[in-house]
């Protein structure tokens, strides 16, 4: 993994030659903020498929390998309502992947696996609940879910109760911190180094994105264009 000293050197090098010292007035907290923003931008491009290859999160082995770092699972405590059960989204939630659920019903002793087949559009809920082939069914072991108000809803139509729900999602990448430097998010001095959690080849692309952000802030057109071309080529 790239350490923070190397990360800072690489950012300065790509903004201008190190020996010129033209950009020594860039503060470490600015590099931290730019790199953390670059992480988010890179992750969203890969998940959505708006990268140069137009490939989304699991459309290639490379995408699976790159993004597995932030793919995580969390057991949710669900709150029952008449037609659905819901839970707040995790604090580090970034993008939906899938839901794994088990349910129980009075007629059955044991719980059974329920396929939460897809993330539905909120506007279609009434139609789905009235559709015999798509509505929640304990017998067929199928249902659907929605996202609304920063909460996950898993629909039961009052036919069964959820016994357990595991939420699989992409979390926000870990923010880097540089020890002894002002943290731009907490406005406190960071006491420890927090390094980039992605492997080195991905971190290199993120560095190009961070340089692009900083060059844009400084209106440095040439460095911006070089960083943009490098980032696009290697995304």
- Report the C-alpha radius of gyration, rounded: 23 Å
Q: Got a strand count?
A: 8
Order of secondary-structure elements: HHHEEEEEHEEEHH
Class derived from helix and strand content:
alpha+beta
Mean pLDDT reading? 88
Contiguous low-pLDDT stretches (5 residues minimum) are: none
Q: What shape does the CA trace take?
A: elongated
Main sheet makeup: 8 strands, mixed
Percentage of residues assigned to helices: 25-40%
What is the count of helical runs?
A: 6
Order of strands across the main sheet? 1-8-4-5-6-7-3-2
User: What share of the residues does DSSP label as strand, in percent?
Assistant: 15-25%
CA-CA gap between termini: 19 Å
Question: Which key terms come to mind for this protein?
Answer:
235 residues, alpha+beta, 8-stranded mixed beta sheet, 6 helices
Describe this structure as you would to a colleague.
The protein has helices at 4-15, 28-48, 61-67, 125-130, 200-217, 221-233; strands spanning 71-76, 79-80, 84-88, 93-104, 112-119, 142-148, 151-155, 161-171. The chain has 235 residues and is an alpha+beta fold. The protein has an eight-stranded mixed β-sheet with strand order 1-8-4-5-6-7-3-2, with no helix packed on it. A hairpin with a 7-residue loop joins strand 4 and strand 5. Helix 5 packs antiparallel against helix 6. It is elongated, with a radius of gyration of 23 Å. The mean pLDDT is 88.
């Amino acid at each position: 993994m790239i350490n923070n000293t190397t990360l800072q050197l690489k950012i300065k090098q790509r903004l201008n030659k190190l020996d010129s010292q033209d950009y020594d007035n860039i503060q470490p907290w600015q590099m931290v903020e730019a790199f953390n923003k670059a992480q988010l931008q890179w992750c969203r491009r890969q998940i959505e498929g708006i990268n140069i290859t137009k490939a989304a999160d699991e459309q290639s082995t490379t995408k699976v390998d790159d993004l597995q770092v932030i793919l995580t699972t969390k057991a949710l405590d669900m709150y029952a309502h008449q037609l659905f059960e819901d839970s707040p989204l995790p604090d580090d939630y970034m993008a939906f992947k899938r839901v794994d659920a088990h349910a129980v019903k009075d007629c059955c002793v044991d719980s059974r696996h329920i396929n939460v087949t897809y993330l539905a559009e909120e506007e279609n809920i009434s139609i789905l609940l009235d559709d015999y082939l798509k509505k929640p069914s304990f017998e067929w072991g199928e249902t659907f879910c929605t996202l609304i108000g920063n909460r996950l809803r898993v629909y039961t139509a009052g036919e069964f109760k959820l016994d357990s729900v595991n939420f699989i999602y992409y979390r926000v990448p870990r923010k880097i911190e540089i020890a002894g430097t002002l943290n731009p998010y907490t406005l406190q001095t960071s006491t420890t180094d927090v390094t980039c959690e992605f492997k080195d080849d991905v971190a290199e692309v993120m560095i190009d994105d961070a340089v692009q952000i900083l060059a844009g802030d400084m209106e440095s057109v040439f460095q911006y264009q070089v960083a943009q071309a490098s980032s696009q080529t290697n995304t």
